[in-house]
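Q: Hi! First time doing this. I have a protein sequence and I read that you can turn it into a structure. Is that right? Here it is:
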Amino acid sequence: MSAAMSTAGLVLPGSNSWINWQYLGFLFMNISPYFWCSLGIGLCVGLSVLGAAWGIFITGSSLLGAAIRVPRITSKNLISIIFCEAVAIYGVIVAIILQTKIESVNQLSNGLWPTAAYTAGYAILGSGLTTGWANLACGISVGVVGSSAALSDAQNSTLFVKILVVEIFGSALGLFGVIIGIIIAGQANFT
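A: Yes, that's right. Below is the predicted 3D structure, encoded as C-alpha cells:
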C-alpha cells in the first residue's frame, strides 16, 4: 500500500483530508449489521461488569481496611457491594433486551444489507454503548461513595444513612443509562 505517512496520521492516496470519507462509507456499508449488534451487546455487558468490579474493588478495599479497626461496620456496609453488583445486573438485563431485538434478514442482490438492518444494527450498538458507559460511571461513583460510607461509618455511625442516600443517587446513574438504552433499542427494527 503506498499511503503517505505523516506524524499526525495517515493520508490515503487521492484524499485531501486526514479522513477519507468515501473509504469510511465503503467500510461501514460492507460490515454486517449483525457485527454492530454483537459489538453493542458485548460492550454493554463488558463495560457494566467492569464498572461493577471497579466499584466493588474501591468499596471492598476501604471496607476491609476500616473493618480491622471497627468490626461492626462489615455487615451494614455490604449494601454498597450490593449496589455495585446491581450495575452488572443492569447490563445483563439490557443485553437480554437487545438480543431479543435481533431478527434474521437476507442480504440484497448487490451483497449489501437493507437500510433498516443497518439502522437497527447501529441502534443496538448505540444502546449497548450508552448503557455500558453509564454503568461504568455508575459503578465507579457507587464505589467511591460506598468507600466513603464505610470510612465515615467507622468514625461516626450516625453518618451511614446520610451517605447511603448519596449512594442511591449515584446508583441512579445506571438506571438512567438503562432507560436511555431501552429507548434507543426501541428504534431497532430489522424489517
